[in-house]
Amino acid sequence: MYTAVVKRITFSADADLIEKARQVAKSENKTLNAAFREWLESYASRLGAVQAHRALMERLRHIHGAGPYPRDEMNYHEWKARLPARGRKAAPELMLHASRDLFYAILFSTLPWLRWEGAWTAALLAVIAAEIVLTLWDFVIEIAVRRELGDVYAGERVTHALMGILYGAMLAMLVPTLLNWWQRPTGLLFETAPIPYWTRVALTAMGVGVILSGTRDLYAALGLPGGAWPWKTGQSRAG
């Protein structure tokens, strides 16, 4: 026979706040004690996420690039292939990049700050699924777009592989959180992720960055004036 050890705790809070919390709990057909226990379980589960994150980073610590990589090796789309300068020839790939950047921006900008609970979890899964489909489609489109350049650059393929590994690891770590959110009442709630503050800021900055990049790609794909800047239309670097 298993007997759970139950401890009583005492905490202080504004009386008006407690009354509002009791009303919310009542609307969900539960007691305030039950609601508090749910919150406590959710809060405690964040420790496991933090520990899993640290363990993953420790396992990946040995991974290094073959670098050093100068800018013309890292930014294949913009610097080496100069896709915006290739006009309508590169439009299919640029349109895919612009669409995918929108989904990346949603993930980067919201996961550090928001909880996608209930039906919102399904919406988040749809965003992830759409991004994966666009990425696979991009692999196919690249073959035709890059034919004149002799194919996708070797280093770019390696970068794609590393990004896929890291993205898969991120999704694996996200699964327990998604399961927890799915079981909760529907709501998009502001609550910071259990990661360092600088990481949240960095991810948000990345979200802004991919939106700007996607806007640039969309503008170039539509063939609008100045879309090739700072390159000349038709200009690209081979090899």
List keywords for this structure.
single chain; 63% helix; two-stranded antiparallel ribbon; 239 residues; 2 strands; elongated; mainly alpha; 8 helices; 3% strand
Structure description:
The chain has 239 residues and is mainly α. It has a domain at 91-227. It contains 8 helices and 2 strands. A two-stranded antiparallel ribbon has the order 1-2. It is elongated. Residues 62-74 have low confidence and may be disordered.
Give the topology.
Blueprint: H1 15-27, H2 32-59, H3 71-74, H4 76-80, H5 91-110, E1 114-117, H6 119-145, H7 154-182, E2 187-190, H8 197-221
Antiparallel strand pairs: 1-2
The total count of strands amounts to: 2
| Percentage beta strand | under 5%
Averaged pLDDT:
81
Poorly predicted runs: 62-74
Helix content: 55-70%
Physical arrangement of strands within the biggest beta sheet:
1-2
Q: Could you state the order of secondary-structure elements as H and E?
A: HHHHHEHHEH
Please report the distance between the alpha carbons of the first and last residues. 71 Å
Q: What structural class is derived from the secondary structure elements?
A: mainly alpha
Radius of gyration: 23 Å
Put simply, the count of helices is 8
Overall geometry comes to: elongated
Largest sheet: 2 strands, antiparallel
